[in-house]
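Illustration 12: BTB domain-containing protein.
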Amino acid sequence: MSTSSSAVGPCSQPPTTSLKDLRTSESQVEEIISSRFNFPDADIAFRSSDQVIFRVHVKNLETHSNGFPPSALCAPGSGEVVDLSEPAATLDLLFQYMYPQRQPDLNEIELSLLADLAEAAEKYEMFSALEICKIFMGNGLQDNPLTVLNYAVRHGYRDIADEAAPLTVSLPLEEVGTHMYPTYMGSWLKYYGEWRKVLEIACTEGWRIAHTNPCRISNSATCPHWLGARQNVLTKLGTRPGALNDLAMIFTTAHGLYPCAIEGLRQWEYFIVVKVNDIPKFRTFL
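Figure caption equivalent — predicted structure in token form:
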């Protein structure tokens, strides 16, 4: 049986795609345009890292920011799109600060997005966003102290850094090593070392303090419960410097278990609190 000359065999080459076909295919890809920032009279456009186009006004950029000099980016009105490294969610918040409108409610966004916004505000010097971002980042200490510490040290907010740093000593060392900016890792390790010294002193003090008052529970001349109370606290302090952030809980629990040893426990707790307060502020290690 004869075989048609038009048949394609297993070794046949696939059809080639011309440059014209590639251009046609690219032109058929629909651009994603920001629904909020697509002004008909916009004279400059930006593309986010996730490929969303923002069409805004040069005048607003110049008025509210020092970080968007259009002449250094592209000629206004040229139709050229400038690529930025931030995702659309961040730029959508950032650009709202350069128009006369109600500003975004930062209470409604997650700390990770707030941190991205704060970094973008610093990078592009968006004046109207800088201070409010600083306030809300400071309010996020309890949620993610390491993120806040990174932000604070990078941008010179030493008061915020001093508040955030003590909370980071409670984090696993692996987490800090992974997420702390390398530039400041050495400073953080020196700071962490001061907390370790205080923990060692705190544990040693527990062996020095004695509780010799009469026991109100067993009517003994000396309280037989002090050894148990001391061991309870030492166990909870363990080897974690972060336990020094939990002194109120540790000693309150011991007070409840050993009420007749409360005098010695209070003396011990006060000693540790004083030593913790004497730890130099994080800024001194920068």
